Amino acid sequence: MLIKMHSSWHNQLSDEFVKPYFEQLTSFVKKEYATHRCFPIESQIFAAFDYCLFEKVKVVIIGQDPYHGLGQANGLCFSVSDGISFPPSLVNIFKEIQTDLKLPIPISGNLERWADQGVLLLNATLTVRETEAGSHQNQGWEIFTDAVIQKISDTKESVVFLLWGGFAKKKGAKIDRNKHHVLETGHPSPLSANRGLWFGNQHFSKTNAYLKSIGSNEIQW
């Protein structure tokens, strides 16, 4: 596995790369990519860290694992590349933005435009086998992404963490809530959203209101 990520993150996380769990994880991922079709493509595994530099992080959104359909995952949680149909969770995210901020549904589901503004789109697990959701869980990725969250919590202040669904809320245990602004709601998947646990959360306007209150630029969602 090629550890390709921006130097701003590499400097912060270099201690993780030499730990036994990460060496085992690297071996696992290399074998999986050699023997199965996996997503995202190898060069995009750490894309979330390339589009949102460490010093620019203002908002963190935590996903579970990458989309497992062909051509969907691009290394940013909930995001798909230009020209790819929106998965159901992303449809519901855009519907909530439309209601919350009165913005039109965008043409592209590529969320690089959020990442460029300081939104870290972090999946708990950074790789997956085609058509097998959760297939790369419990191999070490969760330890690594816990370390990412811990590093942000410890070294930065006034970051907005958006925790959507039970899985993300558990990851939120690493966050110092005295220093950071944490918003929690249900997952945007149809299963959760159709039970009334997603729509109306207003996380996008609430995030911007908080950023404005601390003198930071609002996110153009």
From TrEMBL:
It catalyses: Hydrolyzes single-stranded DNA or mismatched double-stranded DNA and polynucleotides, releasing free uracil. Gene3D superfamilies: Uracil-DNA glycosylase-like domain. InterPro entries: UDG_fam1 (IPR002043), Ura-DNA_Glyclase_AS (IPR018085), Uracil-DNA_glycosylase-like (IPR005122), Uracil-DNA_glycosylase-like_sf (IPR036895). It comes from the Bacteria. One of its GO terms (molecular function) is uracil DNA N-glycosylase activity. Its EC number is 3.2.2.27. It is found in: Cytoplasm. It holds the Pfam family UDG. It is an enzyme of class 3 (hydrolase). The keyword Lipid biosynthesis does not apply. Keywords: Cytoplasm, DNA damage, DNA repair, Glycosidase, Hydrolase. The keyword DNA damage applies. The active site is at D65. Residues 50-211 form the Uracil-DNA glycosylase-like domain. CDD domains: UDG-F1-like (cd10027). PANTHER family: URACIL-DNA GLYCOSYLASE. HAMAP family: UDG (MF_00148). Excises uracil residues from the DNA which can arise as a result of misincorporation of dUMP residues by DNA polymerase or due to deamination of cytosine. Belongs to the uracil-DNA glycosylase (UDG) superfamily. UNG family. This is Uracil-DNA glycosylase. It comes from Flavobacterium buctense.
